Amino acid sequence: MLEVNDLEVRYGAIRAVRGVSLKADTGELVAILGANGAGKSSTLMCIAGALKAAGGSIRLDGQDVTSANPEKMVRAGVATVPETRDVFPDLTVTENLTLGSYTRRSDRAGVTEDRERMLALFPRLAERAAQPAGTLSGGEQQMLVIARAMMSRPKVLLLDEPSLGLAPVIVDQIFEMIRTLKQSGLTIVLVEQNARKALSVADRAYVMRLGKIAASGTAAEIGAATDLSALYLGG
Ligand SMILES: Nc1ncnc2c1ncn2[C@@H]1O[C@H](COP(=O)(O)OP(=O)(O)OP(=O)(O)O)[C@@H](O)[C@H]1O
C-alpha cells in the first residue's frame, strides 16, 4: 500500500532523514520508533506531502506520489494527524468532523453517514458532539483529530505521537481507538516515542536513529531485541 525508498529530508545543511526505506501493507499497522530528533516526524511529514523530499521515492498503491502536496495526498487516500493536535476551538465536535471531509463536499449523504459512524464508534465524542472543541480535554482533542482525519475516508492513516503529553489512562484510550480503526482494515503508520505502547498495537516496527533505520522487524522481534528504554534516552 505504502512504499518509501531511500528517502532523504534536509533542513538546510541538516540531513534529518538519511536514506530511509519502509513499507506498510494493506491493513498493517507499522510503528516508527526512536528517540527525540531521530527523524521520525520528518519522515512522516514528508510522506504526508508537508515536507519536500530531497531524494528517494514514495509510492502509494503503486503510484508515485513523491512530490505530491498535502491536499493531493489526502485526495490520494492518505490522512495525517500531526503532533500539534489542532482542533478548530470555537467550532463544535460535529463541525470539526465535517471539516475533515473537505475533499468530499459533493458527497453530503456520505459525509453525514461517516460522521454518524465516527460518533457511534467513539461515544466519548458523541457525548460532546455539540461542545466547542476548544473545551475538550487533551485526550478528547486527540480523539477528535483522529476521527476528523478519518472523515476523508483514507486508505492510509499517518499518526504522529498521539500519546504525547497525555496521562497513561488517556493514552490507553487513544490506543484502544487506534486498535478499533485497525480492525476496519485501515493501513496505519504510527510514529511514537512510547515504544512499548506502540508495539502493543503494531504488526511491524522500524527503529530510527540519527536519521536512519537502525532496526526493523515484527513488533515481537523489535520488542525482544531492542533496549526500549534507550529509545527514550537517545541511545
Ligand atoms: N524545521 C526544522 N528546521 C531545522 N531542523 C529541523 C527542523 N525540524 C526538525 N529538524 C531537525 O531534524 C532532525 C529530526 O527531527 P524530527 O522532528 O524529524 O525527529 P523526531 O524523531 O520526530 O523527534 P521528536 O520526537 O522530537 O519530534 C532533528 O535533528 C531536528 O532538530
UniProtKB/TrEMBL annotation:
<keyword id="KW-0067">ATP-binding</keyword>
<keyword id="KW-0813">Transport</keyword>
<comment type="similarity">
    <text>Belongs to the ABC transporter superfamily.</text>
</comment>
<dbReference type="GO" id="GO:0005524">
    <property type="term" value="F:ATP binding"/>
</dbReference>
<dbReference type="GO" id="GO:0015807">
    <property type="term" value="P:L-amino acid transport"/>
</dbReference>
<dbReference type="GO" id="GO:0015658">
    <property type="term" value="F:branched-chain amino acid transmembrane transporter activity"/>
</dbReference>
<dbReference type="InterPro" id="IPR052156">
    <property type="entry name" value="BCAA_Transport_ATP-bd_LivF"/>
</dbReference>
<dbReference type="GO" id="GO:0016887">
    <property type="term" value="F:ATP hydrolysis activity"/>
</dbReference>
<feature type="domain" description="ABC transporter">
    <location>
        <begin position="2"/>
        <end position="235"/>
    </location>
</feature>
<keyword id="KW-0547">Nucleotide-binding</keyword>
<dbReference type="InterPro" id="IPR027417">
    <property type="entry name" value="P-loop_NTPase"/>
</dbReference>
<dbReference type="Pfam" id="PF00005">
    <property type="entry name" value="ABC_tran"/>
</dbReference>
<protein>
    <submittedName>
        <fullName>ABC transporter ATP-binding protein</fullName>
    </submittedName>
</protein>
<dbReference type="InterPro" id="IPR003593">
    <property type="entry name" value="AAA+_ATPase"/>
</dbReference>
<dbReference type="InterPro" id="IPR003439">
    <property type="entry name" value="ABC_transporter-like_ATP-bd"/>
</dbReference>
<dbReference type="InterPro" id="IPR017871">
    <property type="entry name" value="ABC_transporter-like_CS"/>
</dbReference>
<keyword id="KW-0029">Amino-acid transport</keyword>
